[in-house]
Amino acid sequence: MLRLLMTTLLSLPFMTYADHHAMPENVVVEIYECMLNEGSSLQDVIAYARSDFNAWAEAEDINARTFIWEPVAITPPYHEAELRWINYFPTWADYHKANKAWTKPENAKNPAAIAAMTTCEKPVFATSKPVTSMPSGAPQKPLIVGVCQLNEGATMSDATTYLSDARMQAMNKALGLNNGMMLWAPGFGLNPEFDFLQIIAGTDTDMMGLFDAVRTGAARKAQMAFNDQPAPMSCHWDLSTSHQVRI
């Protein structure tokens, strides 16, 4: 599933965004799906990312946000990857600048360091549309991804209208939470069997509150209190932990 999650901003049917994984407008998302090499751990990769990778990005004045997603409960066929490296770029020009800086011969040590710890597929891209701002500050957060297909006759416009900031804010208020949401449309390198991804993240407390609200039925009641419009899509959900690297 997260191959789909991977990267880049195309001008698809989305238009605008906010943090944890979020910027003020639609952004380019670059995603690498990786396996850990023998003798390496997820903690090793996160430590490298927060030190040497961050130092490189600062030195090169890279305009991007980076997160590492640790899979917790992922449905096949996307369950095999042991981590996903996610870069968010405000523009394609920012992506191009970062890619040139990363691949220049003088920077050979950094790609080599990652290759020593992981074996990654080539990146894929997606467009990320911000809906509700995600809380920032925590070094890691629970994150769920809804893998969504439009119902027969429904359009992407129907989905973005339904999955509005107003709906998410009403849910948060009714449940006493502060979770954020974004939507991803597939881009380069993706030929998925889904139409879009719905991504929700927040603090441990707020996300556990959401999960319990689903368990007790309180989330459904909050949805119905907002309005009784039927959802124009069907989704199944995967769970990851998002580790903040660079914001």
Structure in a nutshell:
This protein has 247 residues and is an alpha+beta fold.
In CATH, the architecture is 2-Layer Sandwich
Helical fraction:
25-40%
Order of helices and strands: EHEEHHEEEHHEEHHE
Let me know the number of strands: 9
Give the key terms.
247 residues, alpha+beta, Alpha-Beta Plaits, 7 helices, globular, disordered N terminus
Describe the structure.
The chain is α+β, with helices and mostly antiparallel strands. It has one domain: 2-Layer Sandwich (Alpha-Beta Plaits). Helix content is 32%, strand content 31%. The protein is built from 7 helices and 9 strands. The protein has helices at residues 42-59, 92-103, 109-117, 156-162, 165-175, 204-216, 218-226; strands spanning 27-36, 65-73, 83-89, 118-120, 124-132, 140-150, 180-186, 196-201, 233-246. The chain has an 8-stranded antiparallel beta barrel with strand order 1-3-2-9-6-8-7-5, surrounded by 4 helices. Helix 1 packs antiparallel against helix 3 and helix 5 (165-175) crosses helix 7 (218-226). It starts with 26 loop residues before the first strand and ends with a strand. Mean pLDDT is 90; it is low at 1-23.
Q: Layout of helices and strands, plus pairs?
A:
Elements lengths: L26 E10 L5 H18 L5 E9 L9 E7 L2 H12 L5 H9 E3 L3 E9 L7 E11 L5 H7 L2 H11 L4 E7 L9 E6 L2 H13 L1 H9 L6 E14 L1
Helix pairs in contact: 1-3, 5-7
